[in-house]
Design goal:
With about 210 residues, this protein is an all-alpha fold. The chain has 2 domains: about 50 residues, Arc Repressor Mutant, subunit A; about 150 residues, Orthogonal Bundle (Tetracycline Repressor, domain 2), CATH 1.10.357. The protein contains 9 helices and no strands. The longest helix has 26 residues. Keywords: DNA-binding, Repressor, Transcription, Transcription regulation.
Length: about 210
């Protein structure tokens, strides 16, 4: 059998871990089960990642990269700051509805991280990365449109993510499309108000 380098094996194992844990839950994601999913020896997982926490960190990073890439592609060209925030928020929410299994997996990993030494740092890194990406999108939208932010982009990002996480949890455990749409529109309005602008709920597109 031809030798496969760790660099080549890494994305294969990450995908196998995501596929397995999306299908069967995080509890099923042992290194042995992930190795079996890909059809390699268990030692290959440890050789490639070192520890299971490192593999789980890579899983969170990959899902985050995939989801944020979808959101970044949704940024409208030539739109004002407020319109850009609306578009990005709705694009983010579409990923929740279209990639529900990935958000469910991230939620399970976050709950596991609270009680697992070595994994809590991985989740902290994930959340910091999400905050950094969101703050960058806010900063870029403001710079592109000449909009002066009333609060630091990091503060706006943390506020939005806190509300967005709450809506995501509701969608995962008690979905209600009408309530979610109203909640998202209210969050967008509050985020824009924090940034220094004003956008009434009635002005925002639905869906």
């Amino acid at each position: 059998m031809a030798h496969v380098s760790a660099a080549e094996r890494r994305p294969q194992l990450i995908k196998a871990a995501i596929d397995l844990m999306t299908r069967e839950g995080v509890a099923a994601g042992s290194t042995r089960a992930i190795a079996t999913e890909l059809g390699v020896a268990q030692a290959t997982v440890h050789y490639t990642f070192g520890t299971k926490a490192d593999l789980y960190r890579a899983v969170m990073e990959q899902i985050t990269e995939d989801l944020t890439a979808q959101i970044e592609r949704a940024a409208p060209e030539g739109a004002g700051f407020e319109e850009t925030v609306v578009a990005l928020a709705h694009a983010s929410w579409r990923t929740v509805r279209e990639e529900t299994t990935h958000y469910r997996l991230l939620t399970e990993l976050s709950m596991l991280a609270l009680r697992t030494p070595g994994l809590s740092e991985a989740y902290q890194d994930y959340y910091r990365a999400m905050g950094k990406v969101t703050a960058r999108l806010v900063t870029e939208a403001a710079a592109r449109t000449g909009y002066e932010l009333a609060q630091p982009a990091e503060t706006i990002a943390r506020f939005f993510l806190a509300g967005f996480d709450g809506l995501t949890m509701q969608h995962l455990y008690a979905p209600d499309e009408l309530s979610e749409d109203i909640g998202l529109r209210a969050l967008i309005s509050a985020t824009i108000a924090l940034a220094g602008g004003r956008l009434e709920l009635a002005e925002m597109p639905t869906g």
